[in-house]
Amino acid sequence: SGNNLIGASIAPSLTTGNHNQMIGINAGRGLSTGSDNILFGNSAGFSQDTASRNINIGTAAGELNVEAGNVFIGYQAGKKNTTGKSNTFIGLQAGDANTSSSHNTFMGKETGGANTTGNSNTFLGSEAGKSNTTANENTFIGRGAGLNSSAHYNTFVGANSGQSNTSGTMNVFI
User: Fold this and answer.
1) pLDDT at position 1, please?
2) What is the pTM of this model?
């Protein structure tokens, strides 16, 4: 109860899910028992079935997501996330390749764009950490910071900082 659904093909299998807000063609299409979701945009949260407490705003935001507690805002943000939890991706295609990583924060156009399984990363700025796929516990702040990096435990602050670092770990570039 308490669901608000606006659009074609929204949550046709919804049975016991409560307090969901969905707007857009195919938004939350697979949702059956999940609750407290906000899914706005065509195919936003398309595959969610039992997942709860997600916010997916934008066309295909969190399209394949089936886990709880994610925030995906922007065109295709978190699109391929399936089992990743507690992620926040904001921006055009931010974290769009992410599949199973958790506890990441990506903010900006294409931030963490190639990340699939890297955990506990913070990338802020357009294309920051764009090439990271599996590395963990990095902090990249600034446009293009850590653009080509695929190593663990680095901190890069400033536009294009650490851009040439591909495999070095435990670095600080300011």
Assistant:
1) 81
2) 0.96
pLDDT in tens, 136-172: 999 999 999 999 999 999 999 999 999 999 999 999 9
Rounded to whole angstroms, the Cα distance separating 153 from 41 reads 35
Distance between alpha carbon 129 and the CA centroid of its chain, in Å?
A: 14
CA 139, distance to chain mean position in Å, is 16
Q: Please check whether residue 81 is in contact with residue 65, taking contact to mean a CB–CB distance below 8 angstroms.
A: yes
Buried b or exposed e, range 90-119, using 16+ CB within 10 angstroms: bbbbbbbbbeebbebbbbbbbbbbbbbebb
How far apart are the C-alpha atoms of 141 and 114, rounded to whole Å? 17
Assigned token pair, 61:
């935001």
φ, ψ of residue 56 to 5 degrees: the values are: -125, 110
What's the residue count for the chain? 174
